[in-house]
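[09:14] KT: can someone run the structure on this one? pasting the chain below
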Amino acid sequence: MNINLEFAVKIIALFSLSFLYLETTTKVNHWYVIILLFSIISDSLFIFETFYYPALYFLIVNRFLYLVIIRKSIFPYAPKKIFLYSIPILLAFLILYLMIYEYMKDIRISAFIMGVISVFLILFTFLNFLKKNNKRAKYFFLGTSLMPFADVLMAISYYIDSHTTYIIIYHYMYYIARYLIYKSMVTDKKE
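[09:31] RB: done, structure tokens below
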């Protein structure tokens, strides 16, 4: 895939989403603005192989910031319930991680950290959706759940089988996930 075209599409999409958010929201969530900024930085750096590790760092911080946004939904649940709901997500993560472990020699720790953060993100956004059962929680859950699958496809494309189809699919997955998260940020809390 043409690196310049990929870079242009990523940057235009993220800047458009950022301006769309700032234009359509009634109350700005500063954490979400920082997430959008870090997304712009990490996506820009991922284009160039020499900046792969800084891009990965920004991506990990980015995912952690989603946990900051959803942090209030964590506290009403007992640890037993959180553990019970986390089992299927943890098992799915461990299976995927072990399947691609041997191919990720240089980023095993980073991939593990990002995977664990993604497990907690999916878990807490799911619990938030169960508790609130509204459009806003549903959009946030769907968006944050789609991103780890795009991450796995990106890792497969980068480390196992570099195919243009994978690149196109995981980019679309990221764009859809980001749009769903944007929708959750601008949807009224009552919906």
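[09:33] KT: thanks! Residues 135-160 form the longest helix (26 residues).
[09:34] RB: yep, looked fine to me
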